[in-house]
Specification:
Length: about 180
């Protein structure tokens, strides 16, 4: 499975692509950080991110995209920019029929380090080890994008089993409701 990991942001947006192998083997294929100037108008910044992400999608052909879920931060403008960046990326994926999954920072940290409260340095160190990289990925947005992709590779089988179980449970509920109606 080829996974594109995205650490969304307006000023710095981390992008990565990894390939999962047997077991927990993951191979890094590409990583970069898209930067947009803070003094540029918002639509131009989003267009820059969109253009680069679309190029990545057309170049790497990921099977799925893993995006960091924005849930709370102190600075509302930062949250808005991060959400807008993530939305542009999710839209580009949807246009191509690529599944998008969102993971919280604590899910990513727990998957990569075993500790949902791990520091950025701990995440970077583990990403470097997991991917057998010669040097730590920098800036932190690059390491975070790789961590998101790794997290999804390792969580995808569980996500698929949960979706199948939920579908099966819904089918059982329908059958049971039909039996109850028929018995009345």
């Amino acid at each position: 499975m080829r996974v594109m990991g995205v650490d969304p942001g307006l000023t710095r947006c981390g992008l990565s692509v990894v390939q999962s192998g047997l077991g927990r083997q993951v191979i890094a294929l590409d990583v970069d950080v898209v930067r947009t100037p803070a003094d540029e108008p918002l639509p131009r910044r989003l267009l820059t991110i969109s253009d680069i992400v679309e190029h990545w999608l057309d170049t790497h052909h990921p099977d799925v995209i893993a995006i960091e879920r924005v849930f709370s931060q102190q600075n509302v403008s930062t949250v808005m920019g991060t959400a807008q960046s993530g939305g542009v990326i999710a839209l580009a994926a949807a246009k191509r029929g690529i599944d998008v999954h969102f993971h919280t920072p604590s899910e990513v940290k727990a998957a990569v380090t075993g500790n949902g409260s791990a520091s950025k340095d701990q995440v970077t160190t583990m990403v470097t080890k997991i991917l057998a990289l010669q040097a730590k990925p920098t800036p932190p947005d690059a390491a975070d994008a790789l961590a998101l992709a790794i997290c999804h590779c390792w969580r995808a089988p569980m996500i698929a089993r949960m979706a199948a179980a939920e579908l099966k449970a819904a089918e059982h509920r329908k059958k049971f409701a039909a039996k109850v109606r028929a018995a009345r």
